[in-house]
Amino acid sequence: MVLEGGLRKPEREAIKINDSKFWSEEDLDTELRRQFDVCHSCRRCFNLCDSFPKLFDLIDESPSMELDTVETSSFKNVVDACTLCDMCFMVSCPYVPPHEFAIDIPSIFIRYKAIENKKENNLVDAQIAKTDFNGKMGVLFSTIMNFLLNKKRILFRKLLSLLFGIDNTATLPRFNRTSFKEFFLKYKNKFDFKKHYNEKVLIFNTCYVNYNDSKIGEALVKVLEKNKVYMENFYEGCCKMPQLEQGKVHEVKLMAEKTAKKLKEKIDQGFKVIAPIASCALMIKSHWPLLSPDNKYVSLLAKSTMDIDEYIWDLSNRKGLSDGMKSLNRNITLHSSCHSRAQNIGPKSAQILKLIPNTRTVNVEKCSGHGGTWGIKKKWNKTARKVGLSAAKQVFKEDAIIASTCPLAGLHLQDIKEQKNLSNNKEKIYHPIELIAKSYGF
């Protein structure tokens, strides 16, 4: 008897990149058609992203209106439209494992991208994805880079679009003057003597906080210190989500195993690993174990890692947060990003914001359409804005402080707001931890 699996906890199967079958194009085509046939018969995800409408149009416009007359080469446009947001697996699909149909569209698309990357490595996309190198150069030359990357520098942005395919109307992240890692080295001297604290966390910086918005990290440090949490810092490289988007599975696996082995000692000492950016938390907790299912260090790290908002909520439940939070005198509209929701932890960001006194929080759980490096590309930016329009309309509906669990999603939502004249709000879209810090008076 076939049962829908939507009410059962999804159980993702490992991505077996060391199996020769994984790299077989013939086997990939067979599996794609098997899964696509289930999607074709269901169509629950028709409005989730652009991949599914493209798939259904392919089928409907084929001679037989079935998959048997759809060319394999046509599948590329379906795969390319995927942002790996994980929403189809974690939220929408009733046929994910443990269901016998075992539908996992993001994983089969990663497999497709891996085989494509093996045949042809796109050097331009590879450079865009080098967040560590780009971040180091950006911080080193932050003044000139922030000037040139501004949308108002029309000639430079057109050149950037010509060379790298980056849409010249997309807001790009600014660079810090100094990295968060450097900030933390100076700041930690203030609390290094507090090693007697029972609460111990290791901040996994993430590329974005380290190179692009250290204010998120600074807010996090102050909130943790206020709540008597001893902290240390770790950053030796990107979590490799941009590389996963390009199918560079061996590169991601290598980083996962190297990082997990280094962090084992800290975890054994009782440290929790916390990530301030949802995408990086999702990578460590979900995608790293998928690629290294038999590595005990990767498994241990995944179980010991928490999204920062998840950790703050957990701390509040276990011990209670320190007194001192005050009303921000305005309500908050929170955008919960796909990578927050895909962690399957519940609305923790909304819950911690509701701890701020006399403040109403509205939680918008809709996709921004950004998709990391995907949404800034000229080829996809228009589609990304179409996908994110519904979220933007809700986010800017009220005159409120705006927050998002994904800073890149926040930038993208602002682009949509400007294009569609949705609001006159010109404030920064904050990370939730920044608003907790503000409520403490930092």
Explain this structure.
With 442 residues, the protein is α/β, with parallel strands linked by helices. Among the domains are: 20-119; 323-439, Rossmann fold. It is built from 22 helices and seven strands. It has a four-stranded parallel beta sheet with strand order 2-1-3-4. Helix 1 (25-42) runs antiparallel to helix 5. It starts with 24 loop residues before the first helix and ends with a helix. The mean pLDDT is 91.
Helical segment tally?
A: 22
Q: Structural class, from helix and strand content?
A: alpha/beta
Could you spell the SSE succession in H and E letters? HHHHHHHHHHEHHEHHEHHEHEHHEHEHH
The chain-level mean pLDDT equals 91
Query: Helix content range of the residues, please?
Result: 40-55%
Strand proportion, as a percent range, falls in 5-15%
CATH architecture descriptor text of the domain at 323-439: 3-Layer(aba) Sandwich
Ends distance: 58 Å
The coarse overall form would be: globular
At the third CATH level, what is the topology name of the domain at 323-439?
A: Rossmann fold
Biggest pleated sheet: 4 strands, parallel
What is the count of β-strands? 7
Write the layout of secondary structure elements.
Blueprint: H1 25-42, H2 51-60, H3 75-80, H4 87-92, H5 105-119, H6 123-128, H7 131-140, H8 142-149, H9 154-164, H10 180-187, E1 199-204, H11 207-212, H12 214-226, E2 229-234, H13 241-245, H14 249-268, E3 272-275, H15 278-291, H16 296-304, E4 305-307, H17 308-318, E5 332-335, H18 338-341, H19 348-353, E6 361-364, H20 381-395, E7 401-404, H21 407-420, H22 432-439
Parallel strand pairs: 1-2, 1-3, 3-4, 5-6, 5-7
Helix pairs in contact: 1-5, 7-8, 12-22, 14-15, 14-16, 15-16, 20-21
